[in-house]
Batch of 2 targets.
Target 1
Amino acid sequence: MSTSSMSRALGERRRVPAALGTAFLVTGLAFTGAPSAAADVQTGLGYETRPAQPYANNPDAGDWIGSYIVGGEQVWCVQFAHLAPDSDEQYQPGEALRTKWGTALPPEVAADISYLLLRYRSTRSRDEAAALAHLIHAWTSGPQNPAQLDPSNDFRHIAYDAPFHLTKLPPTAQAAVDTLTADAAANRGPWTAAVTAPDAPQTIGVAAEWTFEVANAAGSGVAEVPVTVTASGATFTDPATGDQVTTATVSTPEDGAPVTLAVTPTGAAPALNIALAAPAAVPVVRQAVEVDTQRVVSTGGEEELTAAADTTASPPPTTTTTTTTTTTPPQIPSTIPAGESPQAAVAQAALTDDATPAGLILLGIVLTVAAVFVALLIGHRQPHRRGRHLRR
C-alpha cells in the first residue's frame, strides 16, 4: 500500500484496501519499535511492489507483499484486498481458515500453511516474509474461475493474481518462494514423534543410549525442531553443555536424523518424555471486530506433540571379598636329646592346634617313634656284665 493510504483525514481512521487482504496470520515474533502516536497500519518485513494489481476503486499505487505488525506481533494476511489492520486492531476467536470465497482449503494446502507459519513465524528475512505472504494469498485468494481476476471486480470479489505479483518481487524473494514451497511439501504435518529405550537390561548408574525422532507426514525426519526433553528416574547428558540434567531443549539435526542421548538411570524405573510444537491440520483464524478488517490465524494453529518411553533398571552387582586363613601347625623338633621326652608344650600344641583325625594319627605316630627312640637310648646306657671264661 502507498504511504498516503496510511494517513488520517479529519480525525477519522481511513480504512484502506490492503494488498494482503483482511485476514492475517499471527506469529510469535514480537517487534519492539516505538509505538505510533495513533494506531496506524504498520508494515513488518517484505517488499512494496508497483504497480498495484488493478481492481475497482483500488486507491493504492503499490502492493505490500510481506508481514504486518499488530499488537507487537508479526502477522500475515489471508484475504487479499480487504482492509489492512491497524497496529492495535481488536480480534475475537474465530474458526478454521477457509478461502476468500468461503470454501474449505484442500488438506495439503491447510497443512502447508500451518507448517510454514510454525517454521517461519520468527523470520527476520524480508525475502522469507514476502515469500510467505505471496504463498498464503496464492493458496487462499487465488482464482477459482477466470472471472475473479477481472479488474472490474471490487475488493471483495477480486482474486490474487499470483503470476502478476511474483514477477514484481526481487529475485531473492522469488527464490525464497521456491524454497518455502519445497519445504512445505516435504515437511507438512501431521508430524509424529517417538522415543526409543534400550533393549538391553539397564543398570542404575550406568549410561546407555536412548533415541528420539520427529517425522513428517511422509515418515521422514524433520530438521531443526526444538524438542523439550524431560527424564524421570534418570539423568541425561545435555548435548549443548555436556552437563548431566533432567530437562533440556534439544533440537533435531539438520538432516532430521534421530537424536541419541546418553541416559543414566538413577532409579528402578527410568523414563524419557519429549514435547514439541507441531503444525495443526488446519490453521484457526481470529475475526476482527470491525467489519471488512483482516482476520488473523494464530501461529498456524500449532499443537503440542508428545512421546515417551520407559524401562526398568537394576542395582549394580555387589562384590563379595572372601578371606582364607591358613593355620601352620607347631614345629616339633626333629631330634630329641638323649634321655628326654618331647616337650609337653609341643605335644599339647599339636593336640590343640590340629584336632583332625589325620593330625591325631600323625601325632600318635610321632609320639610312638619318640618313645621307642627314648627306650633304646635308655637301654643302651645300662652296663654290660662281662662273663668269666674258665680255662680248663
Note: DSSP finds six helices and 20 strands in the chain.
Target 2
Amino acid sequence: MLDAAVEEFQRFGLRRARVEDIVRRAGVGRMTVYRKYESKDRLIQAAVWREVRRAYHDGQLVPPAEAGSVGCCWPVVSDMG
C-alpha cells in the first residue's frame, strides 16, 4: 500500500492524490487502507516516514544530530509534492 501511496503522492502531490487511486494501484479495498491508517493524513505520515527511513539507511540523509536540525529530511519530503 505504501508503494502505491508514494507513487500517487509523487505523481499528483499530497493534496491531489486520491485514496481511491491509491487503493486501485495497490490492489486492495478502501477499507483495508482505512483500517490500517485511519485517514489519508495517517497514510501520508506513514509514507513520508518510510521514505525518510529508507533515505537514511541508504546514506542519503545524515542523522539530525550531525545535520544540526530536522531540516535534513526536507529533500525527501519536498519531492513528494
Note: The longest helix spans residues 40-57.
